[in-house]
Write a structure and sequence with these properties.
7-stranded mixed sheet; 11 strands
Length: 165
């Protein structure tokens, strides 16, 4: 096993990223009791319950996701994340802070700084992209074929005009 791992690291030029996300399943609970957790740029998925405790902190969180029916008690504690926050659960954020930060080992996506704890970010909207109708598509293909044919004919005629030595 270790030979395979070494071979993979060498094959990738030594730039290997290994992630082990933290998942708190439904029905399970984690309690930091005011301690700290460094997640090293991994996702934190809460489907059960998470209690940080006053003075507790979680840093190095890449994405924080609260699933439907989950709960997060971060009263008097803090979480630093780098990328996305999705809240479909219940959050007690009294006196707590959620902050998006950027680091070399975990690049940020989104605006840096404080994030509203109890509110989920606004849902992203999807814009419809117009498609080409069959007639428009046919005309486009005909035009591209014509341009390609003219170019090929022009290149062929320029070869015929070259002076002989």
């Amino acid at each position: 096993m270790s030979r395979v791992l070494v071979a993979l690291i060498i094959a990738s030029g030594g730039n290997t990223v290994v992630r082990a996300d933290v998942n708190i399943p439904a029905g399970a609970q984690i309690h930091l009791a005011g301690g700290s957790a460094q997640l090293a740029c991994t996702d934190l998925l809460i489907q059960g319950a998470a209690v940080q405790g006053a003075g507790g902190s979680a840093t190095g969180v890449r994405n924080l996701t609260l699933a439907a029916g989950s709960s997060l008690d971060m009263a008097g504690s803090s979480i630093q994340l780098a990328q996305q926050y999705t809240n479909n659960g219940t959050v007690n954020g009294a006196g707590g802070s959620l902050t998006r930060v950027d680091s070399a080992s975990c690049p940020a996506i989104g605006k840096l700084g404080a994030i509203s704890i109890s509110e989920a970010p606004p849902a992203e909207t999807v814009a419809a992209v117009p498609t080409l109708g069959s007639v428009s598509f046919g005309l486009l293909m005909l035009g591209l074929g014509l341009i390609g044919g003219l170019r090929a004919a022009r290149q062929g005629s320029s070869r015929e005009r070259r002076p002989l030595r």
